[in-house]
């Protein structure tokens, strides 16, 4: 049996992508390999990170397709052809339709910069600051048909003080993300994640 094959979907800077690539190189990804980067933003920084790491990237522009389903059907075909085991969304800023969600049921995860179900969607950090929470954090969850509504796999808390501003909270959250996401992917590579209804269990080694 070959290595556990991961495709990362990203639209922006790619710090989570880089953390996953670095973890694989350091042997901290449970034997998984990042085999592909997919981006809807061909000029995004993350694409340059993939090129620098020697990882294949596939970019597309949603405006070139009549519907989301059209480009997702192409993505599904490619992911199957490359025998991808797990789709890891890492700052991928497009809603997935049932085409992707059903084709990779139980094999698509996302990282979100809040303690879901609080502050789903865009600008979760800004939402948390505006609300005045004393504790925010990071969530890794399964991706389902809703926006950030899938079963929760792992969470890490990040405290706020009166001095916490957007920049410092973003830095603290992204530091937690860079540690948590590789750990969660390694659990999948080791076959230790079980999902029953909405209950997620990670089997201890
Ligand atoms: N079916 C699902 N798809 C996605 C999920 C999910 O839980 N279920 N998570 C998101 C990630 N995400 C926040 O975590 C997110 C993605 C997309 C958007 C959004 O408003 N996108 C717009 C386009 C924005 C743009 O082009 O810049 C859109 O899709 O029309 C907000 C939050 C990933 N997908
Ligand atoms: N709603 C999704 C969302 O807000 N995702 C967030 O986008 C950032 C991507 O950073 P990166 O491109 O440096 O990995 C990450 O902080 C991730 O949690």
UniProtKB/TrEMBL annotation:
Its EC number is 2.1.2.2. The active site is at residue 112. It catalyses: N(1)-(5-phospho-beta-D-ribosyl)glycinamide + (6R)-10-formyltetrahydrofolate = N(2)-formyl-N(1)-(5-phospho-beta-D-ribosyl)glycinamide + (6S)-5,6,7,8-tetrahydrofolate + H(+). N(1)-(5-phospho-beta-D-ribosyl)glycinamide binds at residues 14-16. Transmembrane segments: none annotated. The record marks 148 as: Raises pKa of active site His. It is an enzyme of class 2 (transferase). (6R)-10-formyltetrahydrofolate binds at residues 68, 93-96, 110. Belongs to the GART family. Catalyzes the transfer of a formyl group from 10-formyltetrahydrofolate to 5-phospho-ribosyl-glycinamide (GAR), producing 5-phospho-ribosyl-N-formylglycinamide (FGAR) and tetrahydrofolate. NCBIfam families: PurN. This is Phosphoribosylglycinamide formyltransferase. It comes from Paenibacillus enshidis. The gene is purN.
């Amino acid at each position: 049996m070959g290595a556990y094959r991961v495709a990362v979907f990203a639209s922006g800077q790619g710090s989570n992508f880089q953390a996953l690539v670095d973890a694989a190189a350091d042997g901290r990804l449970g034997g998984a390999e990042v085999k592909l980067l997919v981006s809807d933003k061909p000029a995004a920084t993350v694409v340059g990170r993939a090129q620098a790491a020697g990882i294949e990237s596939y970019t597309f522009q949603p405006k070139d397709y009549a519907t989301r389903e059209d480009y997702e059907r192409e993505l599904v075909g490619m992911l199957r052809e490359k025998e991808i085991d797990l789709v890891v969304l890492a700052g991928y800023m497009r809603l997935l339709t049932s085409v992707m969600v059903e084709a990779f049921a139980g094999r698509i995860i996302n990282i979100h910069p809040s303690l879901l179900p609080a502050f789903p969607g865009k600008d979760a950090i800004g939402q948390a600051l505006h609300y005045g929470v004393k504790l925010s954090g990071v969530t890794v969850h399964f991706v389902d048909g809703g926006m950030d509504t899938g079963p929760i796999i792992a969470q890490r808390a990040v405290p706020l003080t009166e001095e916490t501003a957007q920049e410092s909270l973003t830095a603290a959250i992204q530091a937690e993300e860079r540690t948590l996401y590789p750990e969660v992917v390694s659990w999948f590579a080791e076959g230790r994640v079980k999902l029953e209804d909405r209950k997620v269990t990670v089997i201890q080694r």
